[in-house]
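User: Can you predict the 3D structure for this chain?
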Amino acid sequence: RYVDDELVHLWDNGDVAAVVFHGSFGESCHRVRARVPKVKLWLWVDDGTGPCPSWAVPYESAAATPWTGRFVPTWGRSPDDLYLVYTGGTTGLPKGVMWRQEDLFLVGNRTAKLRYPVDAGYDVVASMLTDPGPVHVPVPPLMHATGSITSFAVWGSGGSVALLPGRSFEATELFDTIVAERAASVVIVGDVHGKPMLEALEAAPGRWDLSSVRVLSSTGAMWSAPIKERLSAHLPRAILVDTLGSSEAPGIASSVTRAGEAGSTARFSITDDTRVLTEDGRWVEPGSGERGLLARRGATSLGYYKDPEKTATTVRMVEGQRWMVPGDWATVEADGAITLLGRGSGTINTGGEKVFPEEVEEALKANLVVRDVVVVGVPDERFGETVCAIVELEPGTSTTLEELRATCRERIAAYKAPRRLLVVASIERQANGKVDRAAWQERAAVTTD
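Assistant: Here is the predicted structure, written as structure tokens:
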């Protein structure tokens, strides 16, 4: 989906030396080649769309080149070598989140089937890898941290990753892949994937044998309680794990649903390595009702590549320890659980009150006619900003602003309920489940009811 300027920024910012691309993206690569002189090798993957360009090398030819031994770069091997995962977020050009490779390995090791001692070296890991590991299916693409980090965890256990061949999500293709590969784990992006999965399962009950699935996990977008509960009925041997995290700090908190249990939305359990920090640097007291920013210590990212200013806002020293603070707001309940409010960058200021879009979206999804929704702030003469709901409806249904406001008022404060409505054919989410809030905000400012 990236255009030329975005590709140039990403490859230049990341000091990229080699690019692997499908043939269908050959023209995009050709247009920017002169603008990215750091790229020394272009590896072309044949997808049946045409011949290999003269300036590229066929991937299969490169892969067939004989190689013996374990690759060690000329500068040696270090746990401090970096893996960069680029995150577009909701503002600005993609940013390279820096991960020490050892920290990334430790993050995956927290939930992997085969878990190593924290101080394990290469020889210890090799000695423990005696049997094949599980098969994992990541639904989001590997450029997204949800897809890549969960895959690293499985590879670290000696497992394999089965990728979906299609370029857009099809629930039937996912289930066919699970059955063919006897996949033990699957990761999705909330209701973005969960709803079409549920529709396919309910339209053809008993069509797929999904008994191999032990874990269905999600992160990156809201996974509503009704969808979890109905999915769990089709996956009686699986646990459903809703994980709160980000490219900068995955696994901040989690919520587990088992077959026959009631699910929850936006409520998570945390570990000792996760806290909620106020803007002035205090820890939020449980049950206080005070809002704060989620923070995680331990194995997290180092910040953003070539962006010390952005890094300084997300990496904070508190009581002598380093904490990653990606920008997610939450409250701490009396029992220590957290309730996620949303990402601060999208906060709507309406008459001096802060409204978190994700909180309103969660309330709106309780209305059964709402298939998908995005909430943004639009200019308002009286309040500065007002809450606008952009809604994709279930086929054959309709609604009104007042009906949606009534749904919200049953669950959240009245001032948070939308005052404007835009009904659209599709929310147009990307393959990784993300949505372009800025684009919708611009459109909603001139076309809302």
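The mean pLDDT is 88. Residues 147 and 221 are 13 Å apart (CA to CA).
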